[in-house]
């Protein structure tokens, strides 16, 4: 089954008087259950591309169908709710809230979704256990190693059980051993059914995905 269908996506930034055409006529399908890497030089449009795929940005031309729903037809409010239901985001620098405990960071998506406190407790603990950090709930992020903090960020992305996990340089700041542990976790999650799209600069990381999409000057030049 096709999970994601992008058709003729174009994205332009307005820089004062001039226009920058950053994504050029991108068409792409991602099947349910795939693990896809995105590579390309700096400035090739990777962040712009995954912000659109990850539904952080809807200012683009073209069609984006997710699980048979046309995302461009959603209202602003429904768009955000749709994203939060379907997509988990993981960032290179974790983006954890430092003042909050690990448990409360991971609970956030469920709190926003209005889930019951008792359900939240169970779901957060299950997710922390799954990621091998079940004993870290009471800690603050700063008390953990980089690899553990990335596991917290992945737990937060997964706690609401999204179909699709998006990761922007998830191993970027980590030493190679820790990076491989995070990648092994992604591979295991993918085997359990999560579709994953991951931006990376590291060819050794990308080659462990099932497919690599290559961007150059805003166009897909390989891996379609
Ligand atoms: P990558 O992630 O591959 O480094 P980006 O998607 O960040 O590429 O950027 C692609 C191009 O778009 C670059 O030339 C960048 O300078 C430009 N760009 C990115 N974001 C903006 C923005 N908000 N406003 C204007 N130009 C931008
Ligand atoms: P990169 O360093 O790879 O360019 P960023 O850390 O700048 O990636 O984040 C990519 C985009 O996601 C940015 O446009 C940022 O505004 C947005 N973003 C970051 N964190 C969140 C979040 N928690 N929720 C929604 N949007 C976010």
TrEMBL record:
<dbReference type="InterPro" id="IPR003439">
    <property type="entry name" value="ABC_transporter-like_ATP-bd"/>
</dbReference>
<dbReference type="Pfam" id="PF00005">
    <property type="entry name" value="ABC_tran"/>
</dbReference>
<dbReference type="InterPro" id="IPR017871">
    <property type="entry name" value="ABC_transporter-like_CS"/>
</dbReference>
<dbReference type="InterPro" id="IPR017911">
    <property type="entry name" value="MacB-like_ATP-bd"/>
</dbReference>
<dbReference type="InterPro" id="IPR003593">
    <property type="entry name" value="AAA+_ATPase"/>
</dbReference>
<keyword id="KW-0813">Transport</keyword>
<feature type="domain" description="ABC transporter">
    <location>
        <begin position="4"/>
        <end position="224"/>
    </location>
</feature>
<comment type="similarity">
    <text>Belongs to the ABC transporter superfamily.</text>
</comment>
<keyword id="KW-0067">ATP-binding</keyword>
<dbReference type="InterPro" id="IPR027417">
    <property type="entry name" value="P-loop_NTPase"/>
</dbReference>
<keyword id="KW-0547">Nucleotide-binding</keyword>
<protein>
    <submittedName>
        <fullName>ABC transporter ATP-binding protein</fullName>
    </submittedName>
</protein>
<dbReference type="GO" id="GO:0005524">
    <property type="term" value="F:ATP binding"/>
</dbReference>
